[in-house]
Amino acid sequence: MKKLQILMFGAPGAGKGTQAKILSSERHIPHISTGDILREAVSKKTELGLKAKAIMEAGELVPDEIMGGIIRDVLFSDKCKPGYILDGFPRTINQANILDGILKEIDEGYPIVIELDADDELIINRLSSRRVCSECGYIVNLNSLEDPTTCPNCGAKNSFIKRKDDEEDVIKNRLNVYHQTTKPVLDFYRNKAKIISIDAALPVEEVAKKITVELN
Ligand SMILES: [Zn+2]
């Protein structure tokens, strides 16, 4: 079977992580989330992980070259031999160029880009109704809960809090950054890779079904 290389693309809150998890269990290929592999590199104390840790402890952002190096290590590892779903990278044209270099080394062609297309209003709506349970860390959307006072994971009452990241002005800032620096990455892939565009406003299962159909 051909190696399945996927790149998840979309605004924060469009559902990249959720769809990546579904696809990962369906296709038995790893979900490579940049947040997770960064934490893993730090806890495993790899050379790049230690560098990243020092930078983060100084309160700075991990530079693209280091993040790219961590991704390179993972994409070359055995677990990515059957394929992978990359989620959260590249977020800038510079990162896309770094990934290009890695892909040339791997020499398996371009990943398929899955774009979860959502307008800003949907994202703001979705993220501003997101809460996290202060007891167990479970993340919910208030709109989809039958009882918005009880955590469906641990049963705690009135335990939901809103993260700073999900305040409306913060969301608007993140969307601005997305439009200015991340959206151009899609054009970068326009003539290179197959792009599958899915309406992110659809229910989770519908989006997943459409992705499956498009990939087959
Ligand atoms: Zn809970």
Structure, explained:
The protein has a five-stranded parallel sheet, with helices on both faces. A three-stranded antiparallel sheet has the order 6-5-7. 30% of the residues are buried. The chain is 48% helix and 16% strand. With 216 residues, it is of the alpha/beta class. It contains eight helices and eight strands. It has one domain (4-119, 168-215): 3-Layer(aba) Sandwich (Rossmann fold). The longest helix is centred in the last third of the chain and has 23 residues, at 168-190. Bound molecules: zinc ion. Residues 133, 135-136, 138, 151, 153-154, 156, 159 line the site of zinc ion.
Describe the structure in brief:
The protein has 216 residues and is α/β, with parallel strands linked by helices. The protein contains 8 helices and 8 strands.
Topology of helices and strands:
Blueprint: E1 4-10, H1 16-27, E2 31-33, H2 34-43, H3 47-57, H4 64-75, E3 83-87, H5 93-106, E4 112-117, H6 120-128, E5 130-133, E6 139-141, E7 160-161, H7 168-190, E8 195-199, H8 204-215
Parallel strand pairs: 1-3, 1-4, 2-3, 4-8
Antiparallel strand pairs: 5-6, 5-7
Bound molecules: zinc ion (ZN).
The site of zinc ion has 9 residues, from loops.
